[in-house]
Specification:
- This protein is mainly α.
- The chain contains nine helices and no strands.
Length: 207
């Protein structure tokens, strides 16, 4: 018979593997979604008639909104310690804004300037927000992070090809639908990941 220690080690190993698998899938589909915005941004803006100088201004705004959004998001996470809830909310907002951007092509500069600034800033905030959530799971998560993050790169690579195919077949509104589906899959797997031990302890102490 296996000792109690061996059983605990096996259980711990199984939990760690499950965590890595779930987060690898999360990163794959999250970065698939992010790629949908950035890889098609310039072709899309060119397609609806914006000049290089106008596109440059739109992309410059992304840098500003990224700083502001990440500062605000970091403040909320530090204050409320609800990283999982915040990343889910952030993913929903990002998906809706980016989907609307590609679903409704408009040639009015100020409207698209706002959409690009919001979408780009939200996507960049997702990068740091998703990483921050994973790091709340402690040293084991940090040790496995390079492997998990690799699946994000794989997702981005696949997305750059698949989104190009979607555009050629369904035009840009098809991108919006694909991004929304990626959001649903990503959030579904985030919900499957248990809260870190520290969060569970804090919640119990509040009761």
């Amino acid at each position: 018979y296996e000792s109690s220690k061996e059983l605990k080690e096996k259980k711990s190993h199984s939990i760690k593997n499950s965590f890595v698998i779930k987060n690898s899938i999360i990163y794959f589909f999250a970065y698939f979604l992010y790629c949908g915005f950035f890889s098609l941004l310039v072709p899309y803006l060119t397609h609806i008639g914006f000049t290089p100088s106008q596109r440059g201004l739109m992309q410059a705004l992304i840098a500003i909104t990224s700083i502001l959004f990440q500062f605000f998001y970091g403040y909320l996470c530090d204050k409320y310690k609800k990283e999982k809830k915040f990343i889910i909310i952030l993913l929903v907002i990002t998906s809706l804004v980016c989907s609307a951007f590609y679903m409704y092509p408009m040639s009015l500069f100020i409207i698209q300037l706002i959409f690009v600034g919001l979408s780009g800033g939200l996507v960049y905030t997702n990068y740091s927000g998703l990483d921050n959530w994973v790091f709340t799971y402690g040293e084991d998560a940090r040790n496995k992070f390079s492997l998990i993050r690799t699946f994000g790169s794989v997702g981005w690579t696949f997305a750059s090809v698949i989104f190009a195919m979607i555009v050629s077949k369904f035009s840009y509104p098809g991108v919006s639908i694909a991004m929304f589906v990626c959001m649903i899959i990503t959030i579904s797997f985030i919900l499957l990941v248990n809260e870190p031990v520290e969060v569970i302890v804090i919640e119990k102490n509040k009761i």
